Amino acid sequence: MAQLIETSTTPLNRVEVDLVTIDLVENALRHARYEMDEVLFRTALSPGIREQHDEFPLIGDPEGKMVVGQFGLSIPDFLENFDGTIEEGDVLLTSDPYSCGAAISHANDWLIVMPIFFEGRIVGWSSMFGHMTDVGGKTPASMPTDARTIFEEGVVIPPFKLYNKSVLAEDSLRIILNQVRKPDWNRADLNGLVAACRTASRRVQELCARFGADTYTSALEELMDRNYRAMKILLAMVFKDGETISFTDYIDDDGVGYGPYKLKMSLTRTGDKVTLDFRESSPQAQGPINYFINENLVRMFFGIYMITVADPQILWNDGFYPLVDVIIPEDSFWKPKYPAALNARNHGIGRVFDLFGGLLGQTNPDLLNAAGFSSSPHFMFSGNYSEGDRKGEWFQLYSIGFGGIPGRPVGDGPDGHSLWPSFVNIPCEYLESYYPLRIERWETISDTGGAGLHRGGNGVDVSYRFLEPGTIAIHDDRWLTYPWGVNGGEPGARGTKWIDRADGTTEIIPSKVIDVPVHRDDVLHFVTWGGGGWGDPLARDPELVGLEVRRGLVTVDGARSYGVVCDGAGAVDVEATDRLRTEMGEGRPSPLPTFNMGPPLETILERCLEETGLPAPLPPISV
Amino acid sequence: MTYRLGVDVGGTFTDILLVNEDSGDTFRAKTSSTPADQSIGVIRGMGQVCELAGIDLTQVGDVLHGTTVATNAILEGKGARVGLVTTDGFRQVLQIARSFVPGGLAGWIIWPKPETLADLQDTVEVRERMSSAGEVVTELDEDDVRRQLTKLRDNKIETLSVSLINSYANSDHERRIREIAAEELPGIQVSLSSEVLPELREYERAITTVANAYVQPQVTSYVDHLESQLEDSGIQGKLYILKSDGGLVSAKTAAVNPVSVMMSGPAGGVIGATWIAEQAGFPNFLTLDMGGTSTDVALVQDLVPRVGRETSVGDLTVRATSVDVRTVGAGGGSIAHVPPLTQALRVGPQSAGADPGPAAYAAGGTEPTVTDANVVLGYLPTQLAGGEITLDHEAARTAVQQIFDATELDSIEAAAAGIVDIVNENMFGALRLVSVQQGFDPRDFALVAFGGAGPLHANAIGRLMGSWPVIIPPSPGVLCAYGDATTSLRDEAVRTLVRSFADLTDDSLVEILKELATEARASLLDEGVDEANHHVAYTADLRYLGQGFEIPVTIDIDSFDGQGAGLDALRAVFDNEHERLFSFLLDGEHEVVTVRATVNGPRPEVTAQLLDEGGTDPADALRTTTEIWVEGAKTAANVYDRTKLKAGQIISGPAIITEMDSTTLVLPGHAATVHVSGSLLIRPETTQTEEV
Question: Among residues A121, A462, B343, B559, which is most buried (max CB within 10 A)?
Fold first, then answer.
């Protein structure tokens, strides 16, 4: 447990705060949080943060509870696990999930935590983590898909004072940066994280100066309380007392040949509270896909889903946490035993989107979206230039791909977009300017979004032509199980990847690989998955289907999934469409099933090789 | 005698300012706007102003015009049907965009899927390819181009845009496509990305080019029409349009590059505020332009508005140089509401707009707006806009009552005060974006407030910011015409280099800058401005090698001595900016991303109409006394007629100052001094001893 050193002993008092001041504080904190993003984006050097925004900010109350932020990290768990003093001017850094109660979940994420002092007292915390492109270890980008322990995943930084009373721990930083392949990136990104946290810190101090520390911290409590009250009403409204609902989805494989891993989440309301239970999920994985999840993170995820639709302007905070119990079993996929490998947990994080959607949507139609682009698949490319001015120079790319947002209650899912907040793609022209690559195709693939009254977004084909030899690595999923549809909507298409080699051969690439050699003029096709459809496809306006055929987002064949008969110009044959729709509608159950997960898992596994070109994974075995 | 004429067409009024170029005297007129054909109102207003000045229309020289035609085309979604030609493999560049979904973690659930500005069915790809170094990888397949353009012709596109991959590095293929389009699609205007925005990043370049094409037919026909109307009226001078960056261009140039005039309106306000602040003697200030649905804010340093590289109109953001104006959805019409679940008090972004408008307008609106809150608090007179709108106090109370009922606030007045506080906070947030968040201390800046609602909220916002004095210009409802009439001709030339400092020398950079200057001078020379009267400024967008964002800095071309002193100086300027913005430096190498030369013509002389001195006592302007609610209690406030105020008079708060198009609120503990140039300068009373 951290020992906090404050020079003032005057306690913070809870005072009355009027409604307007509460809303003023809320507004100011919202601005401060976006300002943190801005500072980091504009100063970072690694494309992952600079161009794609793989980072997450947080501002906490005096106890470290989140008052504004969006995801990840838990300061109370960090403090609980930190053995030492913390005082004004200290800035803490860690990248070790096992030393901070999973405040972060893999060693690529570097987490900064900073106390915010005002007149000698801690009035809050600012914190931010960012994904470092490389943290050393055996493979470029430090995410070996075959790792079984965290020791294979590069430098793992225990919580320590990067700044001790404002003095930089130069030696420690030097030792850390000596482990990584692009130290200048890590240094700049780390500077950006610290600068962003300092910015937040200044903003909080300004608020204290403006309203007084007592009023400020009391306003935070009111904001927490606002979340608590809202959540209490929502829980009673949405879930029946005593009823258990559950939902199951999968991670397809673990990088070392086993899968699919079953992820099951159950929810039961008892009185004012709900319990989220992860006990029926698969045991700990052999490979590095385990997602070491913090209980508070589960609560945050749950809360954001519940509240966003009710008041989109609200600041999510930790206020409702006492209303949510979380049960995560030890030595499981969600809480693996040290020193299990963790690097490829991004699929687990992403799949949480789908899990919550499927779970909460059952009783809350506003939240019942189909399965979306629930991951952040990685593509890595690195090597040394073999000729020209830069001969011998090391290049290294880490990038994130995007796919189909699912069909939703509000409408169609956007094509080739990000389910993650803040994330953006790296422009083709940027990649071509800085890497020996040429992008030959970057477009969404027609019909990959699931058919529905609201169509799922299409997946994307990005085709990379390599202009220098090197190696690539890929972290992907949903190549085996389907992005499911809801309320009669069809599943989206699964993802796939292959290399057209310069020698004319074609090679199918598994979803999780490292150190795959590529040669000049090989072309990698990285095709992401589509979003599931929402609602009855036969109810979609045929003219809209026709328009999407003209736009090239749906094919003439694909239109038939909607019961629409049209020509290549999207002209709808009304009579034939009526006939086809009547025919397709016959014998369907009414109402249509809530979930359409595609064929049964046994069938999927049976047809795996034939359909995907890859052997089926082996059933998971205990570690 | 020669006259120049500033014209600003707003949603409600068309404002005309006539300037005698010899004496500097000004005359102004205001008339209702004519949205169906804006030129009708313009010509009518010009007639009025000439009558006032006692001159004939034929004596009017150049006409300088801020226009919202391009902005409105975007906001109303009424632009042209645009065809887009892309490189093979990139047809969906607008569909995929940057893959970005706004909002937080669950934002994707509620974000409506956007429609692209150029429809995908009107987007074609052609076989060709450039490398990032500008080398041809695949020759342009001209037969393919013709086939694809035929498709677009069959789709009946109205205008064409071309945005090929890496065309910023080599524009040959784009230019060839334009030649072919002239044959295949005769009469269709063509926008090339290599001309509209020769910068790296394909989505940003494409959307900017498409936006240009989207508004082009409307802008072209508008300026053509207006030009011929002016000619018919016997006006001898030329028509110039105010660009988003605050400079003027010929109407013809504006029609070729209309994406550069999308912020013409807001830029006019900032330039107008600059002139006002200069007259009052405050070179550093923030602007607050608060209207019915939104508020624009900007920062001006040493009388030069900060310029940004992005322009946002509604949901559309393009890369076009414009005065760095930030817009927040907070205005007089912003609706207050209390979500039942969280019981927070929210104001905006929904707005009652002009129709039905606030409840107090008695035009069918029932939801509580910011204007209604101001009415409840007694800040607004019974009539607005010179009598065109009568305010219904009871309707305003009834509307604000809803907020009182939904919260635990003590009274209807407290609810109204809460609404005003929240909307002020929203504007405060926007002002912080352009000041604190750019490393500027707002206490070093004055605050110029205008727009119909700005002067009502300005004192309170000045207090939040610590920005004094708060300057309320004369006729704050219509400031843009001053901007139009007081700015200069301007053109710029840009080049993307993406080159590290190690690959540059003083001489090689100067050579590029000189070329750019020559390019930028051309249009001013065409307009008959002598080279001797050109003011050339150079800027560069720099970053540390590998960063994703650039910081624009000014290049001091005189420091380039051929020995490296110029590049050293440039490095130092960048490092200073980086430190100011982000509070740290890196050891890394510096990189030049883009360089530009901006050429300005001479700035016209316009003098303010000076007020007569009238001692310090404003008693002659006192109209009445009214009861207002301020700082938690009812109190009496004097109401003054602004037209009767004289220079030097001091109005102590609480007080209300009314004029035709706006109302100013002076809070208790503050006082407004009437400056000889006509502006009101509001300051806390303790610092009122300073000279004005």
Answer: A462
Print the domain residue range for A403: 369-534
Q: Are residues A521 and A382 in the same domain?
A: yes
ipTM of the predicted structure?
Answer: 0.92
Interchain CB contact of B134 with A (< 8 Å) = no
Residues A512 and A567 in one domain: no
3-class SS string, A122-162 = EEEEEEEEEECCCCCCCCCCCCCCCCCEHHHCCCCCCCEEE
Q: Which of A344-358, B82-96, B505-519, B584-598 has the lowest mean pLDDT?
A: B584-598
Query: Residues A35-92: pLDDT tens digits?
Result: 898 889 888 888 788 877 778 899 999 999 999 887 656 888 899 989 999 999 999 9
Q: Tally the residues of chain B.
A: 692
Model confidence at B594, pLDDT cuts 50, 70, 90, reads: confident
Can you give the C-alpha Rg of chain A in angstroms? 25
Indicate whether A156 and A7 sit together in one domain.
yes
Last residue of a domain, one of A188, A223, A258: A223
Q: How many Å apart are CA A314 and CA A316, to the nearest integer? A: 6
Burial of B530 by CB count in 10 Å (0-12 exposed, 13-18 middle, 19+ buried)? exposed
Chain B residues lying within 8 Å of A47, measured CB to CB: 548
Q: Which amino acid is at B689?
A: T
Q: Do B547 and A45 touch (CB under 8 A)?
A: yes
Minimum distance, in Å, between the CA of residue A219 and any CA atom of chain B = 13
Q: Is residue A529 located within the same domain as residue A551?
A: no
- Residues B314 and B70: their CA atoms lie apart, in Å, by 12
Same domain, residue pair A477 and A554: no
Quick one: A511 and A548 in the same domain? no
Which chain A residue lies closest to B549 (C-alpha atoms)?
A42
Residues B204, B198: Cα–Cα separation, whole Å: 11
In a domain, A106, yes or no: yes
Please count the structural domains in chain A. 3
B523 contacts: CB under 8 Å, gap ≥ 6: B249, B250, B253, B491
CA distances from A585 to A488, A526, A536, A576 (A): 11, 36, 10, 14
% pLDDT > 70, chain A: 99
Pairing state of beta strands A506-508 and A485-486?
unpaired
CA gap A51, B207 in Å, rounded: 18
Lookup: tokens for A437:
């690559």
CB atoms closer than 10 angstroms to residue B507: 14
**Burial annotation A462-496 (CB, 10 A radius, 16+ → b, else e):** bbbbbbbbbbbbbbbbbbbbbbbbbbbbbbbbbbb
- Gap between the Cα atoms of A484 and A534, Å rounded: 9
